[in-house]
Amino acid sequence: MPDPKLEEVFKTSGVPSYTFVKPTEYQRIIVAVRTPGRGLVIEGPSGIGKTTSILKALEEIGLADKALRLTARKAEDRSLIAELPSMNSIGVVLIDDFHRLDETTRRTVADYLKTLADEEVADSKLVVVGINKAGDALVKFAADLNNRIDTIRFETNPDDRVMELINKGEHSLNISINTRNDIVRDSHGSFHIAQMLCRETCLTANITERCNDLRELTISLEIVREKVLDELGRAFFEPARKFATGSRLRRAGRAPYLRMLNWLATSEEWSLLLDHALAQHPDDRASVGQVVDKGYLADFLQSNAELQEVIHYDSSTRVLSVEDPKFLYYLRNLIWNKFSQKVGFLSNDFRGKYDFALSFAGADRDIAEKLYDQLSQAESAVFYDKNEQHRILAMDVEDYLAPIYRSEAQYVVALLGPEYPKKIWTKFESEQFKKRFGEGNVIPVWFADAPPGAFDETSRVGGMTIDRKKDIDTQIALAATELLKKLAESRVETRTLPDPST
Known about the structure:
Layout: H1 6-9, H2 26-34, E1 39-43, H3 50-60, E2 67-71, H4 75-83, E3 91-96, H5 103-119, E4 124-130, H6 134-139, E5 149-153, H7 159-173, E6 175-176, H8 180-187, H9 191-204, E7 215-216, H10 221-245, H11 256-266, E8 271-273, H12 274-280, H13 285-293, H14 296-302, H15 305-308, E9 311-314, E10 319-322, H16 325-332, H17 336-343, E11 354-360, H18 365-377, E12 382-383, H19 389-392, H20 397-408, E13 409-416, H21 424-433, E14 442-447, E15 464-466, H22 472-489
Parallel strand pairs: 1-4, 1-5, 2-3, 3-4, 6-7, 11-12, 11-13, 13-14, 14-15
Antiparallel strand pairs: 8-10, 9-10
């Protein structure tokens, strides 16, 4: 047998032969594949070894030649997947990248899995491979499917398994890698990342095939990492920039897409359950929450084929996941404050939970709602009571509202219509923010039919006027523009996001 070459040992694509390591879930896969009829779902982050493990398991139990591997990445395979229920004796069919199938095909697969299990079909078996929550996406279509399939979840590989991979590669090439412990830590449980870092370490040391004599390497991981990141930057800066800006760069906005990208980078699970992330970052609920709740995130990714190659979003489970482990490695090593400035944001740190809080009487809700729409579309965080009703339920309303107008909103926008002085809640709200007039944080909007009086405290500060007899939409657009300019001026001095590299 010829001496192994570097590209055969530390492989960055395909199934490794010299450096294959059985994950902790491997024996469960063996048993599940041998069980007739019952479907198998293998889920977990990209680059963790899911597909490699199932292919090795099929080889071990002698089914590799009888198995058909299909992937949702290929149009011809997607058509064949949809036709599976009409076929007989399909043998073992592996459906890779299940999460990329459209909802109709996923429903078809779910129904077929249920049929195979109920009829205990011995000569037909489906193995579904996908990223996190792939099983949940299946069960969504048939609640009773959960008892008819085996779901094996791949978490990050333990350090000893990653070290085993490195040791096998060292033995095959007759080398000793001095940074093996550092590579294990940098890999975050990903076999794929470990392969990539080991390969680059060898290339830096001019190792391209097995050494005749044991070779002790003395390569710094910092040098290797810099080379890897430089190469990854050429491929991934543009997708990262495109996702961070969303459908359009709004320099003074709350940068909700940038926030999600940063949360994904700092996640230990290689995926992000957005509901949990929002609970952990309540100050971003108003901006990120609306992007998720209104379907903007799903629509944005659906319309960007380039981003679909690196990021996947399942709107049913609200899980944001990485398609390419190299992309996540790139994100984890970004210097985030520099990245956000390079992308074009004025700031990535914000003064409080909301940029604006709207205070108004019910008679002027139409104006408030139009203004809210304009400001929120610019990705600023706006407190508008209609959107907070579900959070206010069972709460003491005064306790909930008081801090918002007192300090949690950077600016209070008071819509001073004729009914404003007469209402209980507007009186309460104005009591909370009246001390902020001297701080430059209250912006009055006077109505032409209710101009400020000589002794009106609001007359001493700059504000705007709304005239209901004129075109309202034009006036609201102009008012929103001025408010956003005011916000932008306050964001020239930037702070930093948490940096996952520190």
